[in-house]
Specification:
InterPro entries: 7TM_GPCR_serpentine_rcpt_Sre (IPR004151). The protein has seven helices and two strands; from the N terminus they run E-E-H-H-H-H-H-H-H. By secondary structure, the protein is mostly helical. A two-stranded antiparallel ribbon has the order 1-2.
Length: 325
């Protein structure tokens, strides 16, 4: 079995490994065509997904009516994806040996910065669902005041914490202080409690809605609870897509460490690297598309409801007018 670090780029000046960066310099010459073909597809996918995600993010920001703190969490995450796409392009160019692999400072500075950022972004994805659940948890606790306050301080703090934790775990990953297997267990440790809190808050808001509709609560509290339930329904898409992305890519990365890229199975290393990059690139685009689609459906349902209410009001006043004749 090969060394778990043998396939990935090593930066001797820093003593850093880039865990998601497969060092194609070790690949046999007979796989050169396959390497360039799949790298070209990855570069094309990033080039298409980055502007598409930017357009969808702008659409989401302009059309979605949610609390500013929650909107800030969404927008910061999707804007960070744009930096991830730039990092991916730089890493893929180096990976394909279109630029000479640097060995000394300052030549290795670009690959160090962009490679480390890719890992930081992947860890920040883990905390993306967590910060949304925390934001909704605060909204549930302070439901009598939260929606009336348009303060974004909570969103700013959550975004800073998300990026700081992602950066710290990314640093541990590149310095090999956090190995692959420990990363996988840490991922499970983070996702399971978040999922349990998610289920609890959703059920709590659902029970509260039943109680609120049958008692004289204020309209603002009713709106807050309905808003919480709507956000948690959209979280189903976030949790599902994020879980698929994180677990599938982690399994692929672990599997890639057991394949000797310079041996007879080097082709499968290319396929694994291609799929890992493709999943990371396309998942955020699917996510923002689903959020926009959910918002469009929500507005459509709301518009039809208002149209029916308007039609009922028109019939009422028409009948009232007829009765006075």
């Amino acid at each position: 079995m090969p060394d778990l670090q043998s396939n990935i780029l090593y930066l001797p000046r820093l003593g850093w490994y880039l865990p998601i960066y497969i060092d194609y310099a070790l690949l046999e010459g007979r796989h050169a065509v396959a390497k360039h073909f799949f790298l070209a597809i990855n570069l094309l996918a990033v080039s298409i997904c980055a502007p598409l995600a930017l357009h969808l993010t702008r659409q989401f920001y302009r059309s979605t009516v949610i609390h500013p703190s929650l909107k800030l969490v969404y927008v910061v995450h999707f804007c960070t994806y744009q930096v991830f796409c730039i990092s991916s392009i730089v890493c893929l160019i180096y990976q394909g040996q279109y630029l000479i692999i640097p060995k000394t400072f300052p030549e290795d500075l670009p690959i160090t910065i962009f490679g480390a950022h890719k890992i930081e972004y992947q860890w920040s994805q883990v905390f993306f669902t967590l910060v949304i659940v925390i934001e909704r948890f605060v909204a549930t606790i302070r439901m009598r005041k939260y929606e009336r306050s348009r303060n974004i301080s909570l969103g700013v703090v959550l975004c800073l914490v998300q990026q700081a934790l992602g950066g710290y775990l990314g640093y541990l990953s590149v310095t090999s202080s956090l190995n692959l297997f420990l990363s996988f267990f840490l991922l499970l440790f983070l996702i399971i409690p978040v999922s349990l809190v998610f289920v609890y808050i959703y059920k709590f808001n659902k029970s509260q809605l039943v109680r609120v509709l049958s008692t004289p609560f204020t309209l603002s509290i009713k709106y807050q609870i309905i808003e919480n339930l709507y956000v948690f329904k959209t979280l189903n898409d976030i949790v599902g897509l994020s879980a698929f992305c994180l677990f599938s890519t982690n399994i692929l990365i672990v599997a890639s460490r057991f394949i000797d890229i310079g041996g007879p199975y080097g082709f499968w290393q290319i396929i694994i690297s291609f799929l890992t990059e493709l999943i990371f690139t396309t998942t955020p685009v699917l996510l923002i598309w689903r959020l926009n689609r959910n918002e469009s459906l929500r507005k459509s349902v709301r518009g039809k409801t208002m149209a029916r209410q308007q039609e009922g009001a028109d019939h009422y006043f028409k009948d009232l007018q007829e009765s006075w004749k």
